[in-house]
Amino acid sequence: MQRTIYNEDHEAFRASCAAFLAKHVEPNLEKYLEDKALPRDFWLAAGAEGFLGLEIPEEFGGAEADDFRFNAVWDEELSKLNAALASCVAIHTDIAVPYLVDLCTDEQKARWLPGCVTGDILTAIAMTEPGGGSDLAALKTTAVRDGDEWVINGSKTFITNGFSADLVITAVRTSPDKGAKGISLFAIEATDPGFSRGRKLDKVGQSEADTAELFFENVRLGDDRLVGEVDQGFIYMMQRLPQERISCSVSNVAHAKQILGETIQYAHDRQAFKQPIGSLQHNKFLLAELVTKIEVAETFIDAAVLAHTRGEATATDAAKAKWWSSEIQNDVLDHCVQLHGGYGYMNEYRVARAWRDARVSKIWAGSNEIMKELIGRDLGF
Questions:
Q1: 221-249 pLDDT tens trace
Q2: d(CA 143, CA 117)
Q3: 253 Cβ contact list (under 8 Å, min separation 6)
Q4: Is 244 a catalytic residue?
Q5: Beta-bridge partner residues of 170
Q6: Averaged over 271-293, what is the pLDDT?
């Protein structure tokens, strides 16, 4: 079915995204994999082309598109290359930067946003803690008032962009007796004394994404590093998680759709029993199912993106999109591996990497179990 979510402006932007990626990224994908990171050159090149400031006001050098569909187009094109690239970029453009745009003072915006546009400042967001998982309200990293300063101690883990980020939006506990209502957000710079990074985590998939542990040992900051107001951090996170989850959903479907397309071509080219393997009835029926699943999922995610663009998408809508798209992605890619046979289990084949990369999408941005919990609560249970 023809998609109706995008207009000519979005498709022109898509062409620009694709051209940029073909020139600057595709030739370097293997190097990114070897280095287990995206180099600063990538971020600077993306910044120079205007791809990092879609939600940043023009006065700070951004595009101020005010239309999440442009973010979605960028996410889709990145996801066609690999899931790690999309996740690293979306953390910066779709997830971390909006906190700065929405919550920071004019002085803070002038300090950080121009660099976020150019790629000179790479951002990350630090919520998850060792042993904490999805329970954000139970975080243990603290910020204790000491005169005119805050003293931050604690640690975070599984932080995408954590190894190379220049600015980390960090959730900390400022009022120990208030539970979820006692959490605040601070912008911590990589040069702040007491801030350090642990090892670059050795993940099952998405090796190109630098994922790290972060440590805070008596990091002393003034009120000028607060993002928003004291003790409002949990509310801020809950308000912005829907965009994160919709962004993930866009990438999930686009990633699986691309690999499925390549698998269909493989099923045309690969011969067995004197015919293309796609002509075998089981495979033909299976591919028919997979294509339908992708198109149905894409239609729902398109609707979620449109609703979010209009400011109408709810946290429940985003939860449905996130869990369903990640389930479909993993289901489709698992079948794609099977259709490739033994080659599907070889790292040199994109389908193997995609299958491995996709597994985390059922865990991050709130596990799928948490997504179902949110949906269930909306049903009154």
A1: 999 999 999 999 999 999 999 999 999 99
A2: 29
A3: 294, 297, 298, 301, 325, 328, 329
A4: yes
A5: 126, 186
A6: 97
DSSP 176: G
Residue 313: phi and psi, rounded to 5, are -70, 135
Place of tokens 């209502």: 181
| Side-chain half-sphere CA neighbours of 222 within 13 A | 3
Q: What is the pLDDT, as a whole number, of residue 132? A: 76
Q: What is the mean pLDDT of the chain?
A: 96
Virtual CA dihedral for 46, 209, 66, 170, nearest 10 degrees? Answer: -120
Q: 136 with 127: CB under 8 angstroms?
A: yes
Identify the three-state secondary structure at position 182: helix
d(CA 246, CA 319): 8
Is 295 in contact with 347 (CB distance < 8 Å)? no
Query: Across the chain, where does the E strand assignment appear?
Result: 123-126, 142-146, 149-160, 167-173, 183-189, 195-200, 211-221, 271-272, 275-276
Contacts of 235 (CB under 8 A, 6+ apart): none
Nearest to 53 by CA among 130, 120, 129, 127: 120
Of 55, 94, 73, the closest CA to residue 9 belongs to 73
Whole-number Å distance between alpha carbons of 12 and 15: 5
Q: Look-up: residue for tokens 């939006």?
A: 169
Beta bridge partners of 196: 215
Specify whether the CB–CB gap between 125 and 168 falls below 8 A: yes
Structural tokens at position 187: 């912008």
Please identify which of the residues 55, 76, 77, 244 carries the catalytic annotation.
244
Which tens digit of pLDDT belongs to each residue from 185-218?
999 999 999 999 998 899 999 999 999 999 999 9
Does residue 138 register a pLDDT over 90? no
Length of the chain in terms of residues written: 381
Token representation of residue 375: 């949906």
Spacing of C-alpha 138 from chain mean position: 23
Alpha carbon distance 322, 308 (integer Å): 13
370 contacts: CB under 8 Å, gap ≥ 6: 134, 319
Residue with tokens 């919709």: 246
